[in-house]
Design brief:
two-stranded antiparallel sheet; mainly alpha; 5% strand; 9 strands
């Protein structure tokens, strides 16, 4: 085992003991040990600037090199953005679709694609440019989260600790392994935390202001978040229903404000609603030269949702197991692009503190339902907003075959729960609270060292380093006249990486592409134009391949030795092989 593994075991035990000690101390009467004075506004602003500097560094340093390479979904998002920016159609020939087909079953965030389309128009293509959007929004998430926490910790319940708790929570998010890793690559779900916190912030402000305009603004931003990721279309409506019913019960929201907000939400959501109606209710496609609401070639409902058959009990148990792991030490069966072993997800040893916080959050949630008076109504509704996200994510995690990307909206409310647990500890023992922050800081130093020195070695099969450079060089040599034959070794959907790295014409692609299976959940191209994606043919030295440019894995280069006058251009893991 590594040092971090031993550290996690020891610190988990330490956190359990610290939580137990805080509970014991809380039972004692007349204790003054936990009383703390809040940070001054000046100190808070200085610390916030330092935290934002750290958050910025962790999300931008070596952004184009770590992760090294380009994952297939990144390439898909980048290519769709390029195609729409330069040609006005996606790779399937649709003009500005509400939800691009991507691999055939959708899956790519329309909001991520269209924001990247603007980036392509302004700055062009490239790995750093493609990853800047989630990185910048990741930094912004940390900043907005500070104000989210100040909104709730301004309540008298927290005895004047709003600055202290807000700074601790913001710092935790800034260095959190889950959020650092998420912010550094362009998966469609990776902008969802920003959409979540900005929508949550405006909702909390609306609970304070209690005006129709403020609730309508919150509804508008939550509706925009529906375009951020597929799981959001399930999580956000559940959040709205739970949070709004709670606010109605507490008298913070009235029926008029609810109706106005609902109308605003539906107007913004309507294009996506029509997309679901076309694909799931049998409405015809809406195809024009200016926008499209198109049918998918395959749907993912059978893959994602649990089915009512003999497999249901086993799948339910597995989902509960995955949820339990994510809530505690992290799920090591997740893809390595989502976490770094030893540092999943909010650090492996913090869950005892988080569980204390979860107890407090749901205690107050239930308390608010029982209490008829208006005492602390605003705080209780704000706390219920976080609880609503937690409840919605638990329901989703049980109902679908989930993974860390589909549970992306779970972790912001989990961090809130951690801060509630930290508040419980610091309220009873400042020494225990300082010790907790110290062990988190040491773990983060270790995470930063390991991530920036070793992460790439763990994700070679996912980000396919040097393949994009090799396929781009092959196209530079071959142009549109000579055949390009690409290996499949160590690759996943290499055709989409080729499209992105070569800035290939999407019209030509759509006219010439041949898929391995047109009706597959994830369509992968066998060939398009002068590109072929398959195993290298055994008779590669036959006359028919004399003008072919090959892209091969390092393990395949030896096949070409002593087989004629081949030129080998080594790009690292992949090489370009061709004759003059």
């Amino acid at each position: 085992m590594r040092i971090i593994d031993y550290y996690n075991y020891i610190m988990t035990a330490a956190c359990v003991l610290s939580c137990a000690a805080a509970v014991v101390i809380s039972k004692k009467k007349n204790t003054n040990e936990g009383r703390v004075s809040d940070l001054s506004d000046k100190t808070t602003h200085i610390l916030l600037a330092v935290i934002m500097g750290i958050a910025t560094f962790l999300r931008l340093f070596l952004l184009g090199n770590i992760p090294n390479g380009l994952q297939q979904d990144e390439a898909s998002i980048g290519y769709e953005a390029f195609a729409l920016a330069k040609y006005g159609v996606d790779r399937n020939g649709y003009a500005y679709p509400v939800h691009p087909l991507a691999f055939g079953s959708g899956g790519n965030s329309e909001l991520m694609i269209y924001l990247n389309m603007i980036s392509v128009k302004l700055f062009g293509t490239g790995i750093v440019k493609l990853r800047l959007l989630p990185a910048i929004l990741g930094i912004a998430t940390v900043f907005v989260f500070f104000f989210v926490l100040k909104e709730i910790f301004s309540a008298s319940t927290f005895a004047g600790k709003k600055n202290t708790l807000s700074i601790v929570g913001t710092a935790f998010l800034a260095v959190c392994p889950w959020h650092v890793i998420l912010s550094r690559w362009s998966l469609d779900s990776n902008i969802m935390p920003f959409l979540q916190v900005i929508g949550l912030y405006t909702f909390l402000v609306a609970l304070r202001k209690r005006t129709a305009k403020s609730f309508a603004l919150s509804a508008a931003l939550l509706a925009i978040a529906m375009y951020g990721y597929g799981a959001g279309t399930m999580i956000i409506p559940m959040f709205i229903v739970i949070a709004c019913i709670y606010a109605l019960i507490k008298g913070i929201l009235n029926v008029k404000e609810l109706l106005i907000s609902g109308l605003v939400f539906m107007i913004i959501f309507m294009p996506l609603f029509l997309f679901y109606a076309v694909n799931y209710l049998g409405l015809p496609e809406i195809v024009t030269d200016h926008f499209c609401i198109n049918k998918l070639t395959a749907t993912r409902s059978g893959e994602v949702f649990l089915t009512l058959d003999s497999s249901l009990p086993g799948k339910l148990l597995n989902n509960l197991k995955v949820l339990g792991l994510v809530l505690t030490v992290g799920n090591d069966e997740d893809m390595l692009c989502h976490f770094y072993p030893g540092y999943a997800t909010l650090f492996e040893f913090t869950f005892p503190v988080t569980f204390i916080g979860l107890f407090v959050v749901f205690r107050d949630f239930v308390k608010g339902l029982k209490r008829k008076a208006q005492e602390d109504a605003e705080y209780l509704c704000k706390n219920a907003a976080f609880a609503a996200f937690l409840i919605a994510n638990v329901i989703l995690s049980i109902a679908v075959e989930t993974d860390i990307s589909r549970m992306v909206t779970l972790f912001i409310p989990l961090i809130y729960a951690f801060i509630r647990g930290f508040d419980f500890i610091i309220s009873n023992s400042k020494k225990l609270a300082i010790a907790l922050l110290t062990v988190i800081m040491l773990a983060d130093i270790s995470f930063v060292k390991d991530y920036f020195t070793d992460f790439n070695s763990n994700v070679i099969s996912i980000f396919m380093p040097t393949y994009g450079d090799a396929i781009a060089r092959a196209y530079e040599i071959a142009g549109d006249d000579r055949q390009i034959y690409s290996t499949y070794e160590g690759l996943s959907a290499p055709f989409i990486v080729a499209l992105y790295y070569t800035d290939y014409d999407p019209v030509v692609f759509n006219e010439t592409v041949e898929y391995y299976d047109d009706e597959a959940m994830f369509r992968t191209a066998k060939n398009f134009g002068n590109f072929i994606f398959a195993d290298i043919p055994e008779n590669f030295d036959a006359p028919e391949y004399v003008n072919t440019v090959f892209v091969v894995a390092s393990s395949e280069v030896s096949l070409f030795e002593n087989k004629g006058n081949y030129i080998v251009e080594n790009m690292g893991g992949y090489s370009v092989v061709h004759k003059e």
